[in-house]
Amino acid sequence: MQEDVLGRSRVGGSDELDEYYARLAKLGAGALWTVANDIEPWYPQPRSIPMLWKYDELRPLVLESANLVTADDAGRRVVMLVNPEREELSAAVGLLYTGLQIMNPGESMTAHRHAASALRFVIEGEGAWTIVDGDRLEVGPGDFAITPGGTWHEHGNSSGSTPVIWQDGLDIPLVNMLDANFYQVHPELHQVPGRVVNTSLLTHGSILKPDGRTWSKPYSPLLAYPWEMTYEALNNLAKVSDGSPTDGIAMEYVNPHTGGSVMPTMGARMQMLRPSEATKAHRHTGSVVYQVAKGVGHSIVNGRRFDWKKNDIFCVPSWAWYEHVNEDPAEDACLFSFNDFPVMRNLGLFVEEALSENGGHQPEI
């Protein structure tokens, strides 16, 4: 892109230059000034666009998939949610992947592991379980669970009558962009779970730290975060805090030993919008995928309004202005979300700003 600004590339074109560029290309080289303004933009230029995926529209297709392909043939039976501008990466937004996984009653998937990290947010059904490095986690609607990169994991549904549907979130696009992904199937196809269900929750899920226990791995030792505990924490915080003007009552799922993010590449949050609450617009570097856990409302992302209700999913690209509104005058609304903020922060790239009271310039992204 040619710009007439001192300090930016502003080289014009000529036959002589074209001939020079051709000679460079033959040697696998090029002139930086021909692409400098594109690869060093004034502000982030995400390719992803804001998206809303309606659960009521997707659910019949997710259920249909359960009859079309078997768990063993699919590996994981998932309807992935794809941003039209990131199809080549199978990404929902930025370098984040998400999808809706379904497991039939009595079904179980084989154990595997990969370099990419994953998380689950249960949408519907009873009997959902996952085994992560031998710890069998039993989870239900509204529960959040993690399967960190490199851990053996497998999933299943112990219900005899109802399917389980949960949201999968992974950093697969990021790991693949770094050429660092690996995948393995468990040599025994299934793990032998420990004697006690939800061991990590019983050990690390209270306000007290287990005496004498150390944890050196880069992810949280707590693998499951129940909805009841999460919702109670939000309500308790709401009693003593006005919350954030841009996020309402917002809390992060954390590693109980460090207070940091649950995994090195992805963070997760739950936020509560009180009755009729409307947040102020803000933007930041880093991408976010939202899942409506409770309530009804709408969000405005880069000027586009998305009306949502429970179980709908929407995304916010990096550096996009956005705000949320709870449309119910009597009940709160809760939004689960996961993001790539840990990557942004660890690389020193996280930037956030709120829209000023008197407005502000919103660049076209």
Report on this model:
The protein is of the alpha+beta class and 365 residues long. The protein has a single domain, classed as Jelly Rolls (Sandwich). The chain has helices spanning 15-26, 36-39, 55-68, 71-74, 172-177, 199-204, 227-240, 341-346, and strands spanning 51-53, 78-81, 97-103, 112-114, 118-124, 128-132, 135-139, 144-147, 153-157, 164-170, 183-185, 224-225, 249-252, 267-273, 282-284, 288-294, 296-301, 304-309, 313-316, 322-326, 333-339, 352-354. The strands form six sheets. A six-stranded antiparallel sheet has the order 1-19-16-21-14-13. A six-stranded antiparallel sheet has the order 2-3-10-5-8-12. It has a three-stranded antiparallel sheet with strand order 7-6-9, with no helix packed on it. Strand 17 (296-301) and strand 18 (304-309) form a beta hairpin. It is globular, with a radius of gyration of 23 Å.
